[in-house]
Amino acid sequence: MDKKTINSKKPSFYQSIEITNKWCKEWEEELLSDEVFADRVAELFKTKNGLRGFFAYALSDTNCSLLDKLPSSLIFKFVEGGEQIVEITLKNLIMSSAQIINHQRDNNPEYEEISSNISDRCINLLKVLDTKLVNTKVNMILDNLDNLGNSLNNSKKYDSKQKEFIREKISKIAK
User: Fold this and answer.
1) Which residue has better confidence, 87 or 149?
2) List of residues 6+ apart from 132 with CB closer than 8 A
3) How many Cβ atoms are within 10 Å of 56's Cβ, its own excluded?
């Protein structure tokens, strides 16, 4: 547990993933309390790369149980993060849900399971965030789903099966 703070005020995306990896392992080994971990994560959220790197790691690494356990101090920091946390979580929910369909089509159950795990983590996180903000963002996404797509520039739109599945996954937030 040698690195207690972020060395750079503006870590890169990949540095943020590595920082999150290290902190999650320390948290899993109970070398970091929930509160200290949450404070560190809040610092990481001050930059876009920090936010993206945190979620890239915490959502996708199957050995990181942080988002499965959701300590209350971390939930508090997520709620404080407001719109940016809701938006990145919803984006990951949409992308991972669409990817589940792609992996089913490609007969790739290993990747399908990974995408399903990400989708489930997003749903569980969205359930504990600011309900009004989540509802507002969900409605915006549902209204705009036909314009969203699989590529960074949305040039390849989601097909009807993907959109149906995304809607199905989004409906689980309210349950």
Assistant:
1) 87
2) none
3) 18
* Whether 150 contacts 156, CB under 8 Å: yes
Spans of all domains in the chain: 7-81, 83-175
Count other Cβ atoms within 10 Å, centred on residue 9.
Answer: 9
The larger pLDDT score, comparing residue 150 to residue 38, is at: 38
pLDDT of the residue at 2: 46
Q: How far, in Å, CA of 169 to CA of 162, rounded?
A: 10
> Do 19 and 53 meet the contact criterion of CB atoms below 8 Å apart?
yes
pLDDT tens per residue, range 75-113: 999 999 999 999 999 999 999 999 999 999 999 999 999
CB atoms within 10 A of CB 142: 14
Can you list the alpha helix ranges (DSSP code H) found in 9-159?
Answer: 13-28, 34-44, 48-60, 66-69, 72-81, 83-105, 109-128, 131-144
Is the model's pLDDT at 5 over the cut of 60? no
**Strand pairing partners for 149?**
157
Distance, in Å, from the CA atom of 103 to the CA atom of 119, rounded to the nearest integer, reads 14
